[in-house]
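Throughout this chapter, every protein is written as a compact record of paired, labelled lines. The reader may check this reading against the record printed directly beneath this paragraph:
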Amino acid sequence: MHESAFESLGLNFIIFINRDGEIIYGGGYDQEAEASIPIPADLRRQLTPQSPLMQFPHLAYHHQGLIPVKDKLLLVIVEPILRSDATGPAKGALLMGRYLDASVTETLAQRTRLNLQIHSLTAQTMPKELAPVVETLTAQGQDSKSAMLIRPQSATALASYALWRDLYGQPQALLQVRLSRDIYRQGQISLFYLGIALLGSCLVFTASILLLLDRAILKRLLRLSMAVQHIGRSNDLTQRVSGEGNDELSQLSHQINDMLGELQISHQKLAEEQQKAEQLLLNILPAPIADELLQTKASIPQHFDEVTILFADIVGFTHLANRLSPINLVALLNQIFSAFDSLAEQLGLEKIKTIGDAYMVAAGLPTPRDDHAEAIAEMALAMQQVTASLQAESGEPLNIRIGINTGVVVAGVIGTKKFIYDLWGDAVNVASRMEASSEPGLIQVTTATYERLKATYQLDKRGYISVKGRGEMETYWLRGRRPEGLLSSAHLMAQSSQTYP
């Protein structure tokens, strides 16, 4: 590269580097000696493919700043080498650099019209009195790249200092700018006289304004404030403040009345929304549990000695899911479970949850009842009838498998988001196992449930079956009501609808 190019551009180095960090073309030039110079080895080591100087986050990105080269500082700009249409990927990089020497500093001072000095932190010529300044700026600049320190030099001058960091984030130079304090001194004098003038004016105007304010505004404003406070204490949003006249205070009174009207409407809407929220909570949780949550913001788990739990599952649901569209499948599930919900409400049972095609309901909680087993038995028999009716209506092969168990459970609300009322205990697990080991179209019950139903319901002994986690268990099939139990079952339905509305 010809020396005239370096002289016209005012550069010391122009280097072309490929993506592998190899210098394809480049050279150096000493502007003072007007002679070519080699590319320093220290600069070559900073042009590897892994160097930050060779990393470009996007095609329009370039590096511009300061880097150390031996005991000197080099101002560089590194641009990615692109195609003629400015598209990538980058083939390499172009580096252009100029040593930060006295001539560059003088040029910067002339262009900025500032008394500018640049001290290299690694140079031996930096004044010792600047060492505390460097330490202070280094401590301040650990979390900020724009730390600045201003110190007065005398009554007529002050100095501003800033660290100049290289492209690697390390401080390399100290910028020092000296400024005259003539403007500051003149400003102090002007400010003093201005303050005296303002003080005198303020004393005169303050007395006049206070007198006018007291007569025209303050008394009316006090009455308006007292009226607003009275409405706030009474919490009666139907009251209004008086606002006679056409001035700003009268307009304020009208705006307050408009605001009170809007607050009254908002209060009414809030009460309606609160009622809807409470009703929604009652659809999610039992009424006693919902009341407890509303009053105490928490629900204490409860222990129940005798509860009967029912699990039901739709047989062949996977086949239905493969054959029906998702919308039709969900509509069918909704029709089935809505019918089950209606039965649970009629019998005063507590629906716990649905999981996929499984349905869980319990009796004897949150309000204990003596006929919990009978109520669940009626629910199971009615579920069979509903399923048969829906099968005939829809034409789909619907069948359910039901399991029932009676025992001790703990019930409560879990979670703080989308919380549910759930049951825990061995009795719940056994009821689930009864459903899993039952047969399509049949109702399997445990011995505990059998003992409570045998007097009024027809049950057939199934025998011993292997139950996961429990070993061998004796179970029974619930077939229906005994003839003498038909009247009591009708009475149970009527009583449940009255006791558990």
